[in-house]
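Re: that backbone. Tokens:
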């Protein structure tokens, strides 16, 4: 059994991803770079919406944690969209082909009500999945304040894993020139340091009911296959 972190891709990203994979499987000669850019941008947007913005929707107006999340989301979105355009635009189909494995590996297809639905996913290591399971169990028993630090530390580990699967892994698959590689490294460092700093600030600020709300949302994305 494998534990995945998975969330719905949304109709547009699902349609574009299926079309992109089909085009390559059929060996179409028409350039696929524009569609690849659209898929990559849609992928980035759904990750940002799900992992950052959706988590702060129910927080009190002006809450510091909400402002931190929104600022981080803006930084990540701006950074990633620029890098996607720089690294994928006008690349040949053969140059883009190594990324197909990444698109497939980040895709989880589930049948719901007789229809296939796409999820964005990545596998969780057994030890990290176990840490979260223990924390969730303790929170269910009412040990909220006692688990605040453990939850923060688990989220820091989760952030590093998500950064690898959503940023470093696809970047490593492309043959980038010196300037593009440097830009990708700087952008990745900005995103990673911002994410780690934000998590540390947020989990010191959340009230106990907000921790429960956060976990209630977050744990729904743990899927056992």
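Recovered sequence:
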């Amino acid at each position: 059994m494998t534990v995945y972190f998975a969330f719905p891709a949304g109709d547009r990203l699902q349609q574009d991803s299926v079309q992109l994979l089909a085009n390559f499987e059929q060996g179409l000669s028409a350039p696929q770079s524009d569609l690849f850019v659209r898929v990559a941008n849609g992928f980035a947007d759904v990750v940002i919406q799900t992992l950052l913005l959706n988590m702060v929707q129910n927080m009190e107006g002006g809450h510091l944690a909400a402002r931190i999340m929104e600022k981080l989301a803006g930084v990540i979105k701006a950074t990633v969209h620029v890098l996607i355009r720089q690294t994928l635009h006008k690349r040949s189909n053969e140059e883009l082909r190594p990324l197909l494995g990444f698109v497939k590996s980040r895709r989880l297809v589930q049948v719901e009500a007789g229809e296939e639905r796409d999820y964005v996913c990545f596998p969780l290591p057994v030890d990290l999945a176990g840490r979260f399971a223990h924390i969730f169990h303790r929170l269910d028993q009412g040990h909220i304040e006692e688990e605040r630090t453990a939850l923060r530390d688990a989220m820091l580990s989760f952030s590093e894993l998500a950064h690898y699967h959503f940023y470093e892994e696809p970047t490593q698959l492309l043959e980038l020139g010196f300037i593009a590689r440097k830009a990708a490294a700087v952008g990745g460092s900005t995103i990673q340091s911002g994410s780690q700093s934000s998590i540390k600030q947020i989990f010191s600020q959340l009230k106990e009911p907000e921790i429960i709300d956060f976990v209630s949302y977050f744990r729904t994305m743990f899927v056992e296959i």
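The mean pLDDT is 90. The longest strand covers residues 115-123.
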